[in-house]
Each structure stands twice: as structure tokens, then as C-alpha cells.
Amino acid sequence: MTGWTVLLLAGARPGRDPFAEANGTDLKALIAVGGVPMVRRVAETLLASPSISSVTVLSQEPARLAAALPKGVAQAVSGATIAATLDAILADPATRFPLLVTTADHALLTPAMIADFTAKAAGADLAIGLVEQRSLLARLPDTRRTWLKFKRGAYSGANLFAFGTPDAAKAVALWRSVEQDRKKGWRMIAALGPALLMGSVLRLRTLQQTLDSVGKRLGLTIRAVELADPIAAVDVDKPADLELAERLLKERA
């Protein structure tokens, strides 16, 4: 298998970003964590990972990020939404698979997390990185996350996605249909039918059973990848996250 192609999402939401402004910038990707802009920290981690062959940073204003990026990273202009951007890339014959997608606010990402995820995701049309609630709360008892609850466990996203084949575009099309509600996972499940929604609401299905049902509908192999390191669920999206990330980086040091 060739190395993984990486898309590093560093775009900004429309309008002002009070979190970024409170940290001396108008772009969230440029917020410093441990003295280093988030987007640079994540890009350097990706470049240091043996399984990665190339890294492209996607944003609305590539020129604004250029000075913050390490050598060896390409840039491209993102589309109107994340789903629209991925849709175009997956449909491009020049795109090289497998494709790994992560975000600029994944400031605590490590090469070990990347190795864990890519090894477990290999061979799937689509794989989604997740952290199980018990493991994260054992490590960070006071953390507050959004949890998707299923039979035998609750999970938080780890901002790691693998697209193994162009067929994964079928899942992106579903995402586009409910993109405004992407923080409400149940709406994505509801789009696939009432039986699947009720099974999830009543926790009659495990996470993988739910993804298997989704995959069957779409003609895809979709895999839940539980990360060994629960810190993979920590992104920097608000002041409390930034404080936590700074503390965890000091602990690593």
C-alpha cells in the first residue's frame, strides 16, 4: 500500500470568531498552542509520521496561513463547506488513495495516534476515528464532550477520517444533505430510515452494527476505529480546550 494522502482542514466559519480574536488572531487555525500555531503543530506531526506521503492544507485564504506552515506542505483553496470540498476531491481522478482527513484544531495529535488510526482503518471504504467514553473519562474525569450513545458504549469523535476508495463519496453525499446538523449525529442516522434511528435511540445496536447498516444501505464498508489514546478526542475549540491542551503539552514535556 502506498502512503496516505492527507487533507488538513484549516478553514474558518463565516463571520467573526470570538475565540480566535481573544487569542490575537481572526483565524482559529493560527491560535498558538504551546507557542506554536495550531495548524503548524498538526502539519509537523503529520510530516513526522512514516505512513504519510503528502499533506495538503485546505483553507479559504491560503496566503494567510503560508508563513505558519512548515516546508513540505501543499495548500489548496477549500470549497463553501467541508462536505462540498470533500465531494470535489473524492471525484477528482487525480486524488490518490487512501486519504486521511483531519483538522487544524487537533493540536494534541501525535504520530502514534496516526499510526494507530491508519493501521486500523486500512482496507475500509470509510473509517471514522472515535474515543470511548470510559477511557477518556478515566484519563480526564472533568472533560466535557459530545457523546454519541450506543449499545455497549458512548463515543466522541477524534477528528480522524479515512477514505479508502472513491466510493466513500456516497457517505459524503449523505453528510451534505444534513451538514447544517452535523453536530447532531441522530439526524444523520434518521436520514437512513426510522428503523435505524429507533435502534440507535433505544441503544439496541452497537456502534459498529449501526455503521454496518449504514454501509449496507450505501454499498460501503464503514469502520468505527477506536483510538488507543483517549487524548485523540481532545480538540481546541473553546477557551477551556485551549487551557487543557496547554496543560497536557506541559505534561508530555
Low-pLDDT segments: 179-186, 188-202
> Strand tally, please?
10
Question: Superfamily at the CATH H level?
Answer: Spore Coat Polysaccharide Biosynthesis Protein SpsA, Chain A
Q: What is the oligomeric state here? A: single chain
Question: Summary?
Answer:
This protein is 38% helix and 21% strand.
Outline the secondary-structure elements.
Layout: E1 4-9, H1 18-21, E2 32-33, E3 36-37, H2 38-47, E4 52-59, H3 62-65, E5 74-77, H4 82-91, E6 99-103, H5 111-121, E7 126-132, H6 133-139, E8 148-150, E9 153-163, H7 169-177, H8 185-190, H9 194-201, H10 207-218, E10 222-226, H11 239-252
Parallel strand pairs: 1-4, 1-6, 4-5, 7-10
Antiparallel strand pairs: 2-3, 6-9, 7-9, 8-9
Write structural notes for this entry.
- By secondary structure, this protein is an alpha/beta fold.
- It has one domain: Spore Coat Polysaccharide Biosynthesis Protein SpsA, Chain A (Alpha-Beta Complex), CATH 3.90.550.10.
- Helices cover 38% and strands 21% of the residues.
- The strands form two sheets. Strands 1, 4, 5, 6, 7, 8, 9 and 10 form an eight-stranded mixed β-sheet that branches.
- Helix 3 links the parallel strand 4 and strand 5.
- The protein is globular and about 45 Å long.
- The two termini are 34 Å apart.
Entry keywords:
eight-stranded mixed β-sheet, 11 helices, alpha/beta, 253 residues, two-stranded antiparallel sheet, single chain, Spore Coat Polysaccharide Biosynthesis Protein SpsA, Chain A
